[in-house]
Amino acid sequence: MHTPHAPHQPGPAGVTASTANTVTLPTAVPVRQPGSVPGERAAVTAAARARRERSRRRGVHLLLAVMTALSAVTLSVTVGRDYRELTSTTEFFHRHAYTPSYDPLSNVILGLPPNTVDARTSPSPEIRGIAVGPDAITLLAGGRPERVVPLQRPVTGLLDVVEKVDDPSWAGYDGRGRVTLSTALVVSPGASLTITAPVSELVLEVRRGVLLGVDGGRLALDGVAVRPSTTSDDLQQLSVDERRPFVVATNAATLTITRSHLSYLGRDWNSSYGVSWSDRSTGSMTHSEVDHSFIGTYTDHARDVAIEQNWFHDNTLYGVDPHSYSTGISVRNNVSERNGRHGIIFSDFVTGGVVAGNITRDNRLNGIMMDASSTGNRIVGNTASGNRGDGIVLASSPDNVVEQNTITGNRVGLHVRGGGENIRVRSNTIVDNQLATQGISLDGNTLRDNGDQWRPRVLVGIWASVPLVLVLLSGFTGLARRRRSRAVGRPVLGGGV
């Protein structure tokens, strides 16, 4: 049976039945972009500008920090380090060529000039000598005895010798403390002689062959002034004057000098330098003054010589010069100043010595020097100041101790050259020299205010000021920015730079 179709009904609002079940989407709301509204646009612009300002401030801060740091580094290098030009110590000084010679005392006893080097040299009657022995005094001329004075007992004083000689052309006494020698006076082996009060002055005539010596015997000077009969301020000329007298001990002799003044003695010749100990001799010099001599005091193959509490000054070459295989030399509590070269020098295998408590100042070269394999010595508690050369020098001289010295105002404080093995350097104070050290690096010593050395106090001042400089620069830059912003009518965003 056929069922009739239902009649077609129109849908609501004109929607047909065939579209009644279709979902209709709502109309989309347009998305609003930031800044599309005028007020929001201004806020976005301000935020972007603020970000740029912060970035610029960070850049300015970084630039200021870098510039300040670079300035501090520049100041540290230029002002915080003490640069001083080293003074040249090159200075010509003419020395007599070293020539091996005979013992000067043996020469004059033989009638030869003290500096004789040729065995074929003939004796000269102009070379005269008084040889003081234990049992006789012999007057020699040209190596020949002119007179022999037997002694019932040994003489002990210089006035005894003058009385026995009894000839002022050889030795004379003025009755007021002055003895004048016109010949060499030599104390021979086994004899002993003391020059002391009432003798207060011993004048050695300026002529060839005149000297005061001890050859294997004992000689003592106590409270006496020893000088030549004429003097001159031309020390260079005097250094080559063959007539210049000197004092020397040789052949295992003993020479002691105390409370005496020796001046204008010696010349540039072997063991004729001023006051010398040589050939295994020993003795001492204490509480005395030596000046305007070629070398203040000198040793050569000597042993156990004590040089203590003396004043050496204005000598042509050195103040104190232990030399050539001398051993056990004690140099203590002396002042050595204004000498033409070094204040104190040990040279040529001088071993087992002590240099302690001395003041070496204002010498034309070094204050204290160890030279030419001088080893096993102690340099302790000295003051080396104001020397034109270096304070303390160790040249080719290992195995020495340098401690508790004060070294100030010299060219180089401590200078080591030519081999410095096993040198012990400790507890020294090295201040205000053109250079603190050369040829050695130091620990355990005080180094301050020397050239080519950092100045800690200056560096602290430089770097301590860096934060303050940054704050000031930041403030000035921020102030300038605010003024610039006000000038263009733009609000200032944030503070600072």
TrEMBL record:
Classification via InterPro entries: NosD_dom (IPR007742), Para_beta_helix_rpt-2 (IPR022441), PbH1 (IPR006626), Pectin_lyas_fold (IPR012334), Pectin_lyase_fold/virulence (IPR011050)
Pfam families named among the record's database cross-references: NosD (PF05048)
The keyword Transmembrane is annotated on this UniProt entry: yes
Ranges for domain Periplasmic copper-binding protein NosD beta helix: 272-435
Keywords recorded for this protein, A-Z: Membrane, Transmembrane, Transmembrane helix
Classification via SMART domains: PbH1
Domain of life where this protein originates: Bacteria
Membrane-spanning residues: 59-79, 458-480
Keyword Isomerase in annotation: no
Signal peptide start-end: none
Protein name: Periplasmic copper-binding protein NosD beta helix domain-containing protein
Organism per entry: Parafrankia soli
